Amino acid sequence: MSGPGTLARRDAAARRTGRRGRSPVVSALLHLTCITIGAFIVVPIIYGVLGGFKDNGQLAQNPFGLPDPWVTSNYTDIFVSASFWRQLGNSLLIAVATTVLVVGVSAMAAYVFARFAFRGREFFFTLFAMGLMFPFAVAILPLFVLLRAMGLLDNPLGVILPQAAFGLPVTIIVLRGFFREIPREIEEAATVDGCSPFGFFWKILLPMARPALATVSVLAIVASWNNFMLPLVIFNDQSWWTLPLGVQQFQGQYASDTARILAYVVVAMIPALALYAVAERQLIGGLTAGATKG
Amino acid sequence: MPRSVSHPTGTQRPPSARGVPATARPGVGKQSAPRPRSRGRSRARLRTVFRDRGWPTIVVFLAPALLLFCLVVLGPIVLAAYTSLFKWNGFGGLPTDFIGLDNYRRMLADEIFLGDLWRGFILVVLSLGVQLPIALALALLLNQKIRFRAVYRVMFFAPYVLSEVITAVLFTMVLSPEVGLANEVLRAVGMDNLAAEWLSDPDTVLYAVFVVITWKYFGFYMILFLAARQGIPAELIEAASVDGADSWRVFRHVTLPLLGPTIRIAIFLSIIGTIQLFDAVWVLTGGGPVNASETMAITMFQYGFRRFEVGYGTAISMAMFIISLVFALLYQRFVLRRDMEGAITVAKGRS
Questions:
Q1: Out of B64, B83, B219, whose CB is closest to A105?
Q2: Sign of the dihedral defined by the CA atoms of residues A48, A49, A55, A61, in that order
Q3: Within the 146-165 window of chain B, which residues sit less than 8 Å (CB to CB) from chain A?
């Protein structure tokens, strides 16, 4: 199959496709498709952003156009409200705590799964991997009963612990894959130099695995940040509410004040979009690795 | 061909492999293709390296994850299996009013629950028939060398990072009958008769929900497909076109089969995601009007957290669990078997 003739033919083909380019019509059609889909994505967001700068009268009469005049009070009211900042802080605290816990615990387990041989290893790994298949919603009701019995209602731990637990499968799978790639020679050298298993894990493996740790951390942060169901049932006390709960509650409170709700939604989007902007690579890398390895 | 490196059948590690330079062994290079590892080989390798390490390390490192997982993931499932056999309002200690399988009998006669199954089925069909093909088409499109493709990619994926709640609240406004964007657009282009009360009409609400979840999720599948497409070596596509295949046949006989594993995973994720659909529906409609957009998770939530019929609610939880489990096992067994390495099916090949 790979005689010189074939190679020459391939080269010719490559040159041809390289030179051929695409007709302007096809190119325009491709862009048209992309722009249509892009409009489907972006227009609702722009509608939200501009809507937040209108009052409700404007919104009813002039849903598309630019605000006239620009009303900033919807946005400024949010930035001076204590409850918004409190929700932001709660979301942040819970996301960070969840991430530290799930990444720390998973890294330890993944280390054992990646680099130790022991009876029952595959059984335990399969146990964790099966966790991927169980929707979170399945466990929420008995979980609530359990957490109530443990006295964890209206306690951030009541959200942090379950989020971390449900994050274990994907984190362990991604980290195990990465830990397996680290050459055995490094471990042998460390052992020869008197490194204990823990020393190797802490001083060598974790620093080497920084990209993978960043990836799984971003996944954990996003999952925690967007979680709604668990905080909804755990936090009765408003002072613990996270941003998604706040958004939903705000919608109920100002049901007829559409412009104000749009402003709140837009502001609530900012942290997630900012994270996406700085961590796009980790997020996408983690999602594709989690999906294909899990 | 990473496969050629591993020793296929032997229980002993081939002696020659001992001196092979690091880069020639699987698991060392940067390749990310699935690596079949023969059991004997990895055992032998592990035994030589970890001879001096014992159970203490393993137990100490595994215990926290195992404890957390058993307590918070497996524990509730066992608890649900137990409480689903009782009539229980959720208060007090453990339930006492044992009613056997009555909750399950009630469930199978419950029109709302049966409706949930039907609506879930519709959503799955729509997802697999509309959402995934669009995602695949866009992934292939963005794999072309077109200008601004990075911009398009970032834009299409952006909704995925927003929470379902934010998405749903935004779309409550977009779809609202009076000031909503959707109807205004239809009126502006002269299709007034298509304007509708999207979320309060039982005939349209499920499709409206589907549009919202598609808005949020298609970018995720697109990214999966795009990553897989970029993993296909250009030589394969070129070779096919050199051999005279037109672009449709290249797609049908080369690209599509090579994307197969990713497509099968995407189908799996899509179905599991539909089974647990809650946040978006809860915020958009609460399951209404008259249950027209209710999902299993919503029904479970209503009974468990709103009507305090926790026994019955946990029975619905168990139904979701069993449906997920049976689906996952069948899917693993019959569809993913060839694709999966190192996760679930591999357990069968090992002792």
A1: B64
A2: negative
A3: 146-149, 152, 154-159, 161-165
Other CB atoms closer than 10 Å to residue A256's CB: what's the count?
Answer: 7
In chain B, CATH 1.10.3720.10 covers 105-349
Q: Measured between CA atoms, how close is B155 to chain A, in angstroms?
A: 7
From A76, A74, A58, select the one nearest A66 (Cα to Cα). Answer: A58
Tell me how close the Cα of A65 comes to any Cα of chain B, in angstroms. 12
- Chain A: closest CA distance from residue B266 (Å): 8
Instruction: Tell me the three state secondary structure of residue B329.
Output: helix
Residues of B in contact with A287 (CB under 8 A): 220, 223-224
Q: Do A48 and B224 touch (CB under 8 A)?
A: no
**Checking phi first, is residue B180 left (phi over 0); if not, alpha (psi -120 to 50) or beta?**
beta
Task: Quote ipTM for the complex.
Answer: 0.86
Facing residue for B27 by CB, picked from A48, A127, A180: A180
CB contact under 8 A, A118 and B55: yes
Name the CATH superfamily housing domain B105-349.
Answer: MetI-like (1.10.3720.10)
With vertex at residue B32, the alpha carbon angle to CA B29 and CA B33, rounded to the nearest 5 degrees, is 115
| pTM for the predicted model, two decimal places | 0.82
Chains A and B form CB pairs within 8 A to the count of 311
Dump pLDDT digits (tens) for A143-200: 999 999 999 999 999 999 999 999 999 999 999 989 998 888 888 888 888 888 888 9
Task: Give the number of other CB atoms < 10 A from CB of residue A85.
Answer: 12
What token pair was written down for A93?
A: 């605290």
Reported as a pLDDT band with limits 50, 70 and 90, residue B351 is very low
Burial of A151 per CB tally in 10 Å (0-12, 13-18, 19+): exposed
